[in-house]
Automatic annotation (TrEMBL):
Coiled coil: none annotated. Residues 138-474 form the Peptidase A1 domain. One of its GO terms (biological process) is proteolysis. PANTHER family: ASPARTYL PROTEASE AED1, ASPARTYL PROTEASES. Belongs to the peptidase A1 family. It comes from Salix brachista. Gene3D superfamilies: Acid Proteases (2.40.70.10). One of its GO terms (molecular function) is aspartic-type endopeptidase activity. This is Peptidase A1 domain-containing protein. The active site is at residues 156, 357. Residues 1-23 form the signal peptide. Keywords: Aspartyl protease, Disulfide bond, Hydrolase, Protease, Signal.
């Protein structure tokens, strides 16, 4: 079934992401109960990488990897200037594609209990200049094969299968910074056969029925509307740290890859399906992992498998009701702005459902919740001049005439009763000092799922415990 490999097929499924990097450092010079005081000059990131302020500890049953922004000065991918970083407007547009595909995937699963595979023709794939758009905000570097090759992968809690571009790139590989993985040079690589039961589990992990090429299992996955990876399904040794390696991890060896991955070697799937790396390493780490996304592209965070949560973590249960098989669902119950909980009916949140996603940039709120948030935020920010919108962000300020600003605090409430304070760096999205925007957006449909995006997760330690079915949040996980 060569045609499967060589046609750009694709299904409608999901997600993935993008963002650039200019997170801001958000240097706070004062703080009271209801607002953050921020130096305006800290709204844009610095151009050099600050070494991590926290030493990553490593002990039994725990493996920590450094997390960097793909386009920031801390990224090893950033040296290649031929891979252009996207603009903020492009990032936000890509974010919208990811969100659309998540919404469509979840509404499909509500309606039918699963996604139909829809094979579409190559001509419906937007002709994007493949190297321009870079997605996936956050990357980690892992080792694959024997001898191991270092590969920088976008990590994604919203998808399951892990894949990397592979030689000989039978159909197409986009430009990546590191050498493309060559399975024929790895003594530990094995193709998976079409008749293997693990091959059929690709259907739930990717939303597509697997194909078969000369008896080798073929996977295919599409993200958003214009990026995909198709290739052989195989296993090889995955090395996370010098002490933690797994001899045979199932992954996709991509022979036809296109899209928004801008320079990274592929994707590390951290979803809830059984093919995700989290599930495949469950014997060792019990489906426990945590991460901290740095405040800006000039600092680093971490991704840890195993280990325990910070003592000051607040936990809320994972919900599975409307979350779909891959996503981490949460029960949201409210939002506070400037210390006051907004009057939003609980049904606004329960009708929509909610997920937390590492790959969506801007949190997407139910429309009624976003209007209440925006109205309250604008009122508390009324002394600052509003300026034009930035893509999906409609509440933007010109801070040119200020050296410090005071921004209301924002908190998320969950049905379990906890409140999680969004860090100062998770409230604003700075394009330039004269255009700094409230970093939230509304869904257009009240039944679309609420997405807790990665800007709002900055500096929080987010601790996933897939075995106990809960997620914990602790402030100050990284800087
Ligand atoms: C895996 O299977 C494909 C398709 O049959 C084949 O072209 C490729 O050489 C195989 N790779 C290895 C390393 O055996
Ligand atoms: C900044 O201050 C100058 C001088 O008072 C004024 O002309 C200008 O309109 C102000 N700009 C903004 C964005 O407030």
């Amino acid at each position: 079934m060569k045609c499967f490999l060589y046609a750009h097929f694709l299904c409608l499924c999901l997600l993935f992401s993008l963002e650039k990097s200019y997170g801001f450092e958000g240097r706070k010079i004062a703080e009271n109960h209801h607002s953050h005081t921020i130096e305006v000059s800290s709204l844009l990131p610095s151009t050099s990488c600050k070494s991590p302020t926290k030493v990553l500890s490593s002990h039994d049953n725990k493996a920590s990897l450094e997390v960097v922004h793909k386009y920031g000065p801390c990224s090893r991918l950033n040296q290649d200037k031929t891979i252009a970083a996207p603009t903020h407007a492009e990032i936000l547009l890509q974010d919208q594609s990811r969100v659309k595909s998540i919404h469509s995937r979840l509404s499909n699963s509500k309606a039918s209990g699963g996604n139909d595979v829809k094979v579409i023709d190559a001509t419906t794939v937007p002709a994007k200049d493949g190297s321009v758009v870079g997605s996936g905000n956050y990357i980690v570097t892992v080792g694959l094969g024997t001898p191991q090759k270092q590969l920088s992968l976008i990590f994604d809690t919203g998808s399951d299968i892990t894949w990397t571009q592979c030689q000989p790139c039978a159909k197409s590989c986009y430009k990546q910074k590191e050498q493309i993985f060559d399975p024929s040079q790895s003594t530990s690589y094995t193709n998976i056969s079409c008749s293997s039961s693990i091959c059929s589990s690709l259907t739930s992990a990717t939303g597509n029925t697997p194909g078969c090429a000369s008896s080798t299992c073929v996977y295919g996955i599409q993200y958003g509307d214009s990026s995909f990876s198709v290739g052989f399904f195989g296993t090889d040794k995955l090395t996370l740290t010098s002490t933690d390696a797994f001899n045979s991890i199932y992954f996709g060896c991509g022979q036809n890859n296109q899209g928004l991955f801008g320079g990274s070697a592929g994707l590390l799937g951290l979803g809830r399906d059984k093919l995700s790396v989290v599930s495949q390493t469950a014997q060792k780490y019990s489906k426990i992992f945590s991460y901290c996304l740095p405040s800006s592209s000039s600092s680093t965070g971490f991704l840890t498998f195993g280990g325990s949560a910070s003592k000051n973590s607040k936990f809320t249960p994972l919900s599975t009701i409307s979350a779909g098989p891959s996503f981490y669902g949460l029960d949201f119950s409210g939002i506070s702005v400037g210390g006051t909980k907004l009057a939003i009916s609980a049904s606004v949140f329960s009708n929509a459902g909610a997920i937390i996603d590492s790959g969506t940039v801007i949190s997407r709120l139910p429309p009624a919740a976003y209007s209440a948030l925006r109205a309250s935020f604008r009122k508390l920010m009324s002394k600052y001049p509003l300026t034009s919108a930035l893509s999906i962000l409609d509440t933007c300020y010109d801070f040119s005439n200020y050296s410090t600003i005071s921004v209301p605090k924002i908190g998320f409430f969950f049905s379990s009763g906890i409140e999680v304070d969004i860090d100062a760096t998770g409230i604003l999205y700075a394009n330039r000092i004269s255009q700094v925007c409230l970093a939230f957006a509304g869904n257009s449909d009240a039944t679309d799922v609420f997405i807790f995006g990665n800007v709002q997760q900055k500096t929080l330690e987010v601790f996933y415990d897939g075995s106990a079915g809960k997620v914990g949040f602790a402030p100050g996980g990284c800087s």
